[in-house]
Amino acid sequence: MVQTARRTSPPTYVDANRLWVDSRLRYQVGLRLEGPALARLGARGERCLEIGTGRRGLGARVAVTRFGARDVLAVDVHAASVGRARLATADLGDRVRFQVADATALPVPDASVDLVLSFHAFHHIADWRAAVAESARVLRPGGQLALTEMTARFVDARWLRAVSRHPDDRFDTGELVAELARCGLQVGERQLRTRLGGRVVQAVAHRTAPGT
């Protein structure tokens, strides 16, 4: 694996991540803009695993209402987020389940899900490459990883780093797509979208069959 030079991140003075991540505005952006955009890129799957529930259950709701999911397992490392998301999506009934789990050690067997979904989770994960590999592990051949992410160009902006703590060594679009490919997740030309000058990327990657 080719490693790029590590970036030196600007300092963080106040960590206000939660004020945005769990805000009503953030939820509405995901529900009304980012979710439909991923659907247009082809995101689809009956058995879904969501990485990073947040406290409003955004991904679980989008999976059911936009991507045709009938069985969603949504995971987060924060127990408080899992509890709040479970309450926020109670109307979805037994189609959604929630569990405290790490994205680098997902609690499902190999090749067992149709769709892995992430709304801005990977750029929060210290070892994001391990999380990509784990997503590939749990996807069946032909399954999809659908994601919306902020790239290093956004995350490492001085104004954002000053008020929002993130791990170092974040990715740009090219690095993310290259890591997906290394793990057997291929992004087609029409299943990648960047916005805000490459600061935000949306993609749907397909799990290739072993040996292809």
From TrEMBL:
Output the superkingdom of the source species: Bacteria
Please report the name of this protein according to its UniProt entry.
Class I SAM-dependent methyltransferase
InterPro entries membership: Diverse_substrate_MTase, Methyltransf_11, SAM-dependent_MTases_sf
Q: What's an example Gene Ontology biological process for this entry?
A: methylation
| Biological source species | Goekera deserti
* Homology family: Belongs to the methyltransferase superfamily.
Q: Which GO terms describe its molecular function?
A: S-adenosylmethionine-dependent methyltransferase activity
Sorted keywords for this record are: Methyltransferase, Transferase
Pfam families hit by this protein: Methyltransf_11
Q: Which residue intervals define the domain Methyltransferase type in the entry?
A: 49-146
